[in-house]
Structure formats: structure tokens, C-alpha cells
Amino acid sequence: QVQLVESGGGPGRAGGSLRLSCAASEYAYSSNCMGWFRQAPGKERGGVAPIYTGNGRQNYADSVKGRFAIAQDNAKNRVYLQMNSLQPDDTATYYCAAIFNARPSECGSPTQFLFFSKERGLWGQGTLVSVSS
């Protein structure tokens, strides 16, 4: 069963906006930490933004702070990533991930989120965002 499905990627222009959506199964959405990470061509994966779903606490990578916003919709089992003021450096495949039984510290930074999502989390298949200048 597919647990996490991303959508909303595609071409974008510098200065523009895109909104990514992550549809989660009931099981995946029962996790207490969800978020996004990305991988640009030829680069390592980097955490973007986790959200601790119990209290809604969010954290952002410095490179996206003030431009991206993560949100959750409990009625729809979805997590969104609103991306504004897009830059060519935002070009990457964006992945949704979920961590079960996460401690607050494990969801407390994009770096920790990426690490623990690899250790014991679920990943989606990714959605490609391509930003032109």
C-alpha cells in the first residue's frame, strides 16, 4: 500500500509560487512528525521543513525560511508545502516523509528530520520542481 503520495510539482519561475501536497494514508498520518526534504541533481538530500503534528510546531531550513510554509490538514490527511519567492536553487525533487513516535528533538530541525526519516520513517516517491530564472 502506498503510504505517501506527493503532487504539485512542475515548472516554476523565479519569484513565483508552487504548492506541494502530500496525501497520506491513515497509517502514515498517525505519525507525529511529517515534513519535506529535497534532493537537487548531483547534490545530497537536504531537509526542508518538518512539522510536529501533535502541536503544529514547524522548523525550516535557513535556505527556505521566510519563503516556504508547511501546513497540515487533519481532515484530509494531508501536509502541504507552500513555496513562495521561488529561486532556481529550489530546483529539486521534493519528498514527503513521516516519522513514527518521534521525539520533539527528532522533529526539531530539518537535519534531524531527514536523519530520522531515513532511520525509521516512510518516504513518498517524490515530485520534481524545476525553477527557471
Describe the SSE topology.
Layout: E1 4-7, E2 10-13, E3 18-24, H1 26-29, E4 33-39, E5 45-52, E6 57-58, E7 68-73, E8 78-83, E9 92-99, H2 110-120, E10 121-123, E11 127-132
Parallel strand pairs: 2-11
Antiparallel strand pairs: 1-3, 3-8, 4-5, 4-9, 5-6, 7-8, 9-10, 9-11
What does this structure look like?
- Helices cover 11% and strands 46% of the residues.
- The chain is mainly β and 133 residues long.
- It has two helices and eleven strands; from the N terminus they run E-E-E-H-E-E-E-E-E-E-H-E-E.
- The strands form two sheets. Strands 2, 4, 5, 6, 9, 10 and 11 form a seven-stranded mixed beta sheet that branches. Strands 1-3-8-7 form a four-stranded antiparallel beta sheet.
- The chain has helices at 26-29, 110-120, and strands at 4-7, 10-13, 18-24, 33-39, 45-52, 57-58, 68-73, 78-83, 92-99, 121-123, 127-132.
- The relative contact order is 0.30.
- The model has no long low-confidence stretch (mean pLDDT 95).
- The termini are far apart.
- The protein is globular.
Q: What string gives the helices and strands in order?
A: EEEHEEEEEEHEE
Uncertain stretches: none
Write down the overall mean pLDDT. 95
Oligomer: single chain
Strand content: over 45%
Helix count from the secondary structure assignment: 2
What's the number of extended β-strand segments? Answer: 11
Approximate shape: globular
Distance between the termini: 38 Å
Write down the Rg.
13 Å
Structural class: mainly beta
Biggest beta sheet attributes: 7 strands, mixed
What is the helix fraction of residues, given as a range? 10-25%
